[in-house]
Design goal:
rod-shaped; mainly alpha
Length: 235
């Protein structure tokens, strides 16, 4: 939540609390009671949106873990297929599987995914030959699963960023709507009570002020400069 939005929400909650404390003043006015319920429901909705916006995500960490797992099993499969390629003088297969952990690590997400898909296809074609190197169907399935998991997590951080942006925009709209609700609904009804209960109106107006919390924080005290010791004159 941005600082200005937080300041607005603090004001809205202060107004809600003030009205709750003075329910006896306005409680018999049905439109006033309806307006206050709408205010409180809106504040709850803002809190929910803010919590969703600020909830930490492990999507980036999940992506990194999935990549590590894929690189590990992909390298081992390339090693096995590389042996077959060398023995058969299969230059295309050798070029496909001629990798090191470093070269895999330097590939971007698309390159790594595409390379893994091609190696997986080659492994499925060479199942019988791979068995002579003790590479089983379970190993091929492990590569397939690692690739699917990596592809599933590849876009997760971007998706979460888009979700946060949408929640930020929604939060802004919710706060603006609540401020309009005060201005066009509750403020006028409070003003109607000005002659009958001026103290209540004055208190409401005080609660209605938006305070910039960031600007009111006390500055850290500065470290005093130690006194300078005068240098004695030379004899």
């Amino acid at each position: 939540m941005k600082t200005d939005q937080r300041n607005d929400v603090d004001m809205l909650k202060t107004v809600s609390a003030y009205l709750a404390d003075h329910n006896a003043v306005w409680g018999s006015m049905a439109p006033f009671a309806t307006a206050v319920r709408s205010l409180n429901d809106g504040i709850k909705a803002v809190d929910t949106t803010a919590q969703n916006q600020e909830t930490p995500t492990g999507a980036t960490q999940d992506k990194a873990s999935a990549r590590d797992a894929l690189e590990d099993v992909l390298f081992l499969m390339c090693e096995a297929l590389g042996v077959l390629a060398h023995n058969a003088s299969d230059n295309d297969l050798f070029a496909l599987t001629d990798v090191t952990p470093t070269t895999l690590d330097r590939m971007d997400g698309e390159e790594l995914s595409n390379r893994a898909a091609r190696v997986l296809a080659a492994a499925n074609e060479k199942k019988t030959e791979l068995e002579t190197l003790q590479v089983t169907q379970a190993n091929i399935d492990e590569l397939d699963t690692a690739l699917q998991t990596f592809n599933a997590t590849k876009t997760s951080p971007r998706t979460r960023t888009a979700e946060r942006k949408a929640q930020t925009e929604s939060l802004g709209r919710q706060v603006r709507d609540l401020k309009k609700h005060l201005r066009h609904s509750i403020d006028p009804m409070v003003n109607l009570l000005r002659r009958m209960n001026p103290d209540f109106v004055a208190g409401y107006r005080a609660a209605r002020v938006v305070i910039d919390r960031a600007a009111t924080r006390a500055a850290a005290p500065s470290t005093p400069t130690p006194p300078t010791t005068p240098t004695p004159p030379k004899p």
